[in-house]
Structures
1.
Amino acid sequence: MDNNHNIQFDHINQFFYAAFTVDNVIFGFDGGDLKILLIKRGEEPFSGKWALPGYFVRKTETLDSAAKRVLEELTGLKNVYLQQVRSLGKIDRHPAGRVITVGYFSLIKIEDYKIQPSATGMAKQAEWWSLKEIAELAFDHDEVIDFAFEMLKRRVRTQPIGFELLPPKFTLTELQQLYEAILLSDAPPESNKLDKRNFRKKILSMNLLVDLNEVQEGVAHRPAKLYRFDKEKYHALQQAGFSYGL
Amino acid sequence: MDNNHNIQFDHINQFFYAAFTVDNVIFGFDGGDLKILLIKRGEEPFSGKWALPGYFVRKTETLDSAAKRVLEELTGLKNVYLQQVRSLGKIDRHPAGRVITVGYFSLIKIEDYKIQPSATGMAKQAEWWSLKEIAELAFDHDEVIDFAFEMLKRRVRTQPIGFELLPPKFTLTELQQLYEAILLSDAPPESNKLDKRNFRKKILSMNLLVDLNEVQEGVAHRPAKLYRFDKEKYHALQQAGFSYGL
DNA sequence: TCAAAAGTGTTTGGGTTACACCCATGA
DNA sequence: TCATGGGTGTAACCCAAACACTTTTGA
């Protein structure tokens, strides 16, 4: 707590009283529902309560690398879509002292998720929770989720990040269900879906999908064509600067 | 540095090694140019360098209230549009130890700005700098400005925050110049302005402007009509949920 | 009377929306 | 053959973009 300090900066030593954490809102999509990966805390404070996966930032870590570490320890996944959302800093949000948290959100393919044995340090348990049914959480984690979800809704309109949540091969209907789960989350349930024809027209006109010439197997109806996302074309477009709405 | 701590939380005491600051990107508009209020630092580190106004967050402050305090100490202004932007946390960004900064941006009417005597504590000097000509800054403050300006550009398309930067009475041309300064900042200088007729059509169709039935005085050409922004209508619209582009 | 900025409508094209029926498969 | 979801085209409408001349004032 007193390393790093320097006689030259005596007047500001009084401000080195805080700790900070990262908390990660990890989104996944299971074909019908948008979900968040929560852990059951195994240590104080809030031991036994559900919470966002997160931890203190170490001296050797940047904010981003701490967020990556938390994600990898829990899921085993690297190279994941990860964005800083916002920091929360109420004075008494942590009983152990002044702790600021930096919220992140990440998008993973839910099928890739495996609980890592190493994650059992802090987490007794990890589970996917549907956005709607999330219980009372530790700290101010419900606020972090609200901010993250708002950011996801904004992002999905201007960047094709939906693909981060889908398996490598997917159908247009799956893609549409994902957009509906994100964009129509607060709309009346069975009412206004997106229009199927218009959705397909729009998505296909972006030329970001590659037709795999394969179809679903084992479904009790006409099998759907499978597509993959064309990352190369997307990056080329991004360079040139583009945006779209849905 | 050791208050607040509790025997129950011994295992995390090691993480209370950091300090955190707020840095505020204060935008103003002088009729032609979008500007940022910078201070010349009067204390170490980076004494003598230009920097964003900012300071350490005290134990009794939230992040937001620290940002408000910094703004008020420097400008004397309260009730200002203020938004958190993003936190930066590179390991060695502050020579005195681990210091995370939380970036904010605010929008003020440039004519309201008066340097406060109390601000001379840390700031030897404060000055408006045109966005294009901002010199090398202390810390990573150029990054904070980049993030803040990107956020401003996004916000101005979906919320009528431009009015925060204009005097109470303004002309449509002034409003247009403001939008041009924000939205066309990276476009070739004298080339593509916004179209005057389309801009007016769009702005007036929003019904957020009140025609004051007054005109400019003392101009060497046909005087322009003056308008004010209708906050009541704006809030009503916001409740109902709206958005627009330009 | 001249310079300088204010003010004002119409046309065109592209994109979004609304909408209904046939197709392929497994049970 | 039936149930289930997959797949397809067109017309109407609205909003965005392009575009040029007249008006009012002070110098």
Note: Helices of chain A lie at 63-75, 141-158, 172-183, 196-205, 231-240.
2.
Amino acid sequence: MKDERTATGGAVLRQRVTEAITEAAFAELAEVGYARTSMERVAKRAGVGKAALYRRWSSKQTMLTELIRDRITASLPPTPATGVLRTDLLALLTTIRGQLSAPLLTRIGAGLLAEAGTDAALAEMLESVVAAPRRAAALEVLRGAVDRGELPPGADLELGIDLVIAPLAFRVLVTREDGGDEYLERLADAIEAGLKATAR
Amino acid sequence: MKDERTATGGAVLRQRVTEAITEAAFAELAEVGYARTSMERVAKRAGVGKAALYRRWSSKQTMLTELIRDRITASLPPTPATGVLRTDLLALLTTIRGQLSAPLLTRIGAGLLAEAGTDAALAEMLESVVAAPRRAAALEVLRGAVDRGELPPGADLELGIDLVIAPLAFRVLVTREDGGDEYLERLADAIEAGLKATAR
Amino acid sequence: MKDERTATGGAVLRQRVTEAITEAAFAELAEVGYARTSMERVAKRAGVGKAALYRRWSSKQTMLTELIRDRITASLPPTPATGVLRTDLLALLTTIRGQLSAPLLTRIGAGLLAEAGTDAALAEMLESVVAAPRRAAALEVLRGAVDRGELPPGADLELGIDLVIAPLAFRVLVTREDGGDEYLERLADAIEAGLKATAR
Amino acid sequence: MKDERTATGGAVLRQRVTEAITEAAFAELAEVGYARTSMERVAKRAGVGKAALYRRWSSKQTMLTELIRDRITASLPPTPATGVLRTDLLALLTTIRGQLSAPLLTRIGAGLLAEAGTDAALAEMLESVVAAPRRAAALEVLRGAVDRGELPPGADLELGIDLVIAPLAFRVLVTREDGGDEYLERLADAIEAGLKATAR
DNA sequence: TTCTAATCGAGACGGTACGTCCCGTCTTGCC
DNA sequence: GGCAAGACGGGACGTACCGTCTCGATTAGAA
């Protein structure tokens, strides 16, 4: 996160310590979840003083938010462009399903969302890092289909985005079923057909 | 929930106290959210000893889970049966949107879900009290449409349920946009057309 | 210290806990001294939560100050009244020497005095509980001698008080020699003769 | 103390840095007292890195002990020798009073003494630098009086030393009254008369 | 004058203690 | 026996220093 040096001489947060903390924090998150992760245990586990944590982040919330954001940011979805809507949709749905199914996310996803209700900075982060890129990818896929004439010009692409993301996210994160390949295929079919019906 | 008398003696949990606690708890939930609601503050706010809380519920989780469950249970969605799929869907979507938009739910919804990741009892409660009835209502609407021939016999009704619930929930709880009437209409159109495309 | 009950029902600081803390605190004082005594260790040693300490005293300083004050207050010097100045002086000096030599006092006396430099409440406490009673006892002894004609009417009794207390305190607390019986006798002689020389 | 050059290279502890630290340390001592003086604040105040302090002294105790010792050493009392006991005593008492009244000493005196209880090196320093020279001066004054026949040969000069130092120290450092000139005169009278009475 | 090694400011490091807040349990005396 | 009040042991929070260590920049004696 930081680690860029200051103007003159001066101390700098050490990469090794940051890495040890990061590793310990994710291990705790995986073991006890977002709410029960404690700074004290993270520090102990990383073999580090509590101050090393607070030198990097101003609070527990900030630390977890930032660590998770960085990890999520590292896995942006590519935008498929096969030239066929159904194929593009399937590829996108498969990618998103894979990212949502990551053990970390299923473990802490809801906790993050909950925290976002209180913490505007976290909410903004989730929007910009998690939601926006996926909405953008979905929008691009749909817009391509409109350009190629696979979807009518008046199709409600905003609704289309919701259809791409919401049912899958719901299934994986809330219902905690995995959404098998067949599910994805039928979802892709439904999205395509459904969107055609939304043209003004 | 309780307030049934115990076996011996004449002592019974007093209704007035239970009500004061309930009121205070929801007030705290609304003000500070699920995670930051503390038993200490609820007791103080209710003008009640902490023991009065623990006499009724075994833990903070249990108390909040139970209180919220009772409140949610009180607002089960009716199953519309107008004889026309699109009308039924619109009615159902409107009802669900109304319930999801309740200030309490937007405030603590994600927190509940997060806690459910750790707390199996809460997860089970949410499934049985929140999800199942709404899935059942959606299923009944869709099944009626199949019976009337509005949907083909092979339509994937499980996916249909997701389409009814997920995009709307996502919009209201995550995106925090309200999903206006026009959104509901297009969504209803997309569900109907989409489901027709899922027949084997 | 406290332990008097509040008006209605209500919790009360438990005597047993207070005693355990007191015992642990004096044990720590004896082992590591005033400055290095820590609340954390006192609590651990007493088998008590830190909060139990802070419920009784608002800070470490306050706790130690109050505990020590109470212990000191319990040992007020009696005022000897044998009718002979030299005998009275010897008795008083012996008593004071005994109290100053208590292991606790030699261990923490200077620390208390140091803290008093910063802490006006402590300073006032030391003055009223430690100094004033001893000054009063000395003054009474000397005034009796004036009344009986053993000392001239113009003798400087304020100086007399200093002569009774200071050399002995200095020897025991600073020089850390004990001031044997012979020392006390010569000191008594010097005080008597010295005071006679201060009459205007 | 230091500032002598090392074997190789050109590096030497820089005088300017040492001076800045010294000045900052005494400023902190004066402001917050012995116990609350922190290395961190001294370094910051001196515009110096913490390492600069630890390069010169091995610990906070050592640093403060050494700095204070050097400052005290600079103000040894001269031994008056007027040929008349009472005059010598008055001169000595006046000098000692002046030194004890120095703002620094009244601020940190008790703290030093307290620390000396734990820290043998500090205790030894105080004895050799503070106490011993003053005892020696007092002893020389008294011995001269014995030689001149102003005091009997058997007079208890050890007690005499206590009488010179203790009441005055007590008044200035503990009672925090100043001991006016009249007090010194009566004290001198009392010492002279008192000592005459201690001859075997 | 150039080289070179220790000192410099800055502050991160692992630790220990501070004083606070909340958990879920326990105790007290009133009703 | 329920009740209000709140003390209890325990654990985590975020802060302040301790004495040590790490950086790159400075500085002054030796070559």
Note: Residues 5, 8-12, 14, 38-41, 50-51, 54, 58-60 of chain D lie near DNA strand F (CB under 10 Å from a C1').
